[in-house]
Amino acid sequence: MKKPKQTQLNPNWAQLQQKLKLNGSKASKTSQDSDEDTPKSILGKRKERPGDESNDCQINPLVPVNDDSSLTDAVAMDCEMVGVGQGNKSALGRVTLVNNWGNVIYDEFVRPMERVVDFRTKISGIRPRDLKKAKEFWTAQKKVAELIKGRILVGHALCNDLKALLLSHPKKDIRDTSEYQPFLKSSSRRALRHLAAEHLGVKIQTGEHCPIEDARAAMLLYQRNKKEWEKSIKDQYRFKQKQKKRKQKKKQKNEDASNASHAAIGS
């Protein structure tokens, strides 16, 4: 019995089959090698390696994780100043407030009461056109006062911002990153950009300052140290209360002794 004649493949088809088989083999090997060589994170995604190009796409911790712009129990504030008078006197040019998550709840350019002679653009980022339709100082001041009343106020060197706004805030409700003990270096205050780089791993203030970014950095520094920070505030309060009670007892003791002495003399 004759064997059936084998069908002759078209040379082009045979060549294509061979090429597909070869490519499939390579793809399988590449995939296997990649799975073996690439470590996985907890989420099963590829971990970044030092020097990897994708490091440029790292998530910025200052970017809010949601779009909730509600008013929270703690708010962070940052102000930018312009020069008035002879140029060496600072006046409010912009004020920004963000909530717990870093979302903006107030951000306005402010027209100073005195004529601006130096916009300090290289630092403030403020230009003449920004103040043409800016808020009047008293309007901005009133709004900020309403927003911070009864809330924890976070920021860096807040005394300067409050001074520019002609406002005050209870000391017990201020969380100033320039004064928090663990952030100090040899009892000296440090710039916000240095704290952000060291504790948050982000670069800020590399050119013109962005008050939104600065307020977010201050808020994140507070949030990441909130537990210890609030504990230190409570400990300070308790210590002051004890000192106050001791002084009152001592004063009362001296008064009692004085009264007893007067009574003895009178008798």
From TrEMBL:
Function: Exoribonuclease involved in ribosome biosynthesis. Involved in the processing of ITS1, the internal transcribed spacer localized between the 18S and 5.8S rRNAs.
Exonuclease domain boundaries: 73-231
Keyword check for Nuclease: yes
UniProt name for this protein: RNA exonuclease 4
MF GO annotations: 3'-5' exonuclease activity; nucleic acid binding
Assigned keywords, A-Z: Exonuclease, Hydrolase, Nuclease, Nucleus, rRNA processing
Biased composition (Basic residues): 239-252
Subcellular localization, as worded in the UniProt entry: Nucleus
Superkingdom of source: Eukaryota
Record's GO cellular component terms: nucleus
Organism: Canavalia gladiata
Polar residues bias: start-end ranges: 1-31
Family of the protein in this entry: Belongs to the REXO4 family.
Region spans: Disordered: 1-63, 233-267
Keyword rRNA processing attached: yes
Coiled-coil spans in chain: none
CDD domains documented for this protein: REX4_like (cd06144)
Alphabetical GO biological process terms: rRNA processing
